[in-house]
């Protein structure tokens, strides 16, 4: 059985800028860094996903410094990089094929935003039949108004996104459980 693949979503410089908004889980980048180190030590597969916007005015437009990976999480030459321009990392990216060719069946997802790219990617992964795990303390999101115009805190948005995923599309776990999952293989 192959080791689970760590998928790091949109950990780009722009996600840490104040313009991104009020966020939760300030320790998430550190948890992601710890998991990345563990995956590298184990020789397990790692996929780095970055959003490249179609909008020229975006923080994530091609060539913008804010679209680059955060320095602490730079991909190594042997790690796969996926560029996407919609929230779901599986759409028009070749990610599904890359995973299938390597007989990868289990995914551990971390990154940002919990309610956007993380949730979209995890839903598709679950629908495609991958054993999918989302690391709650390895993800973060931003405050957002709901459909009724009520401002929801980043913690509330995060919790609802995780609730949307848990036991339907993925198992929501913490970073310690992700470590344990890696060590089982």
UniProtKB/TrEMBL annotation:
Tagged with keyword Hydrolase: yes
Domain of life: Bacteria
Database matches in InterPro entries: Isochorismatase-like_dom, Isochorismatase-like_hydrls, Isochorismatase-like_sf
Keywords noted in UniProt: Hydrolase
Record-linked Gene3D superfamilies: Isochorismatase-like
CDD domains assigned: nicotinamidase_related
Record protein name field: Nicotinamidase-related amidase
MF terms (GO), sorted A to Z: hydrolase activity
SUPFAM superfamilies: Isochorismatase-like hydrolases
Organism per entry: Phytopseudomonas punonensis
Sequence ranges assigned to domain Isochorismatase-like in this UniProt record: 5-155
């Amino acid at each position: 059985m192959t080791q689970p693949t760590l998928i790091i979503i949109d950990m780009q410089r722009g996600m840490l800028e104040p313009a991104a908004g009020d966020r939760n889980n300030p320790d998430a980048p550190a948890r992601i860094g710890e998991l990345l180190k563990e995956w590298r030590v184990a020789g397990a597969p790692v996929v780095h996903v970055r959003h490249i916007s179609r909008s020229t005015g975006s923080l994530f437009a091609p060539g913008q410094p804010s679209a680059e990976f955060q320095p602490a999480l730079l991909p190594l030459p042997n790690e796969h990089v996926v560029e996407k321009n919609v929230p779901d990392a599986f759409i028009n990216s070749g990610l599904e094929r890359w995973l299938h060719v390597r007989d990868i069946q289990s995914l551990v997802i971390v990154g940002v935003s919990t309610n956007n790219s993380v949730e979209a990617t995890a839903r598709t992964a679950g629908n495609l039949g991958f054993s999918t795990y989302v690391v709650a303390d390895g993800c973060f999101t931003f405050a957002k108004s709901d459909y009724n115009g009520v401002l929801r805190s980043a913690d509330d948005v995060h919790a609802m996104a995780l609730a949307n995923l848990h036991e339907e599309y993925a198992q929501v776990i913490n970073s310690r459980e992700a470590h344990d999952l890696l060590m089982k293989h």
